[in-house]
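User: My collaborator sent over this chain with a note saying "see what the structure looks like." That's all I know about it. Can you take a look?
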Amino acid sequence: MEELSLRSLELSDFEHIMGWVNNPEIVSNFGWFGNPVSREEEQRYLERLIASPTDKVYSAFFGGEYIGQVGIHERDDRNKQGRLSIIIGNKDNWGRGYAPQMIDALLDKAFNDLHVHKVWGVFLEQNKKAHRLFIEKCGFKIEGLLRQEYCRGGAYHDMIRMAMLEDEYWARAWERADGGDQSVS
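Assistant: Without extra context I'll predict from the sequence alone. Here is the result:
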């Protein structure tokens, strides 16, 4: 059975990333993507990201096929938290169940390897797919509403801030490993 795997971002991922970084269908929900990115700009960005002490990004593969990136950004070692990111770089892979697997694998790395206490993120309030993915499928909790946080298409939009705490991660992992039964025999 094939499984999703993550490996640390490498410069060899450059061509995969260039395949989606300028595709508005892929990046339209991300505020920092607005203008086309040149190959030179992306190369410099990847070099900075790989060297960054506060960002840890992984490339996701399923059966050897590139799927996208997940990461923990803005890592704050004092408060032991970081911001989640995820992107599936090929629209043909949307809706195939990769996103929950990518997030689960990232949370495993965040809480086990990076030793964070909290993983947080934001999504557009009207993005029902993100709500279903993060809140319903992956167990994140809503922390609040960021009013008019994001400007897209000349209009401001509200963002939902969500997070998962370390103890919530471990309770969820334990429940999943135990088949959902948390009773003590």
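A starting point for your reply to your collaborator: The CA atoms of residues 70 and 102 lie 7 Å apart.
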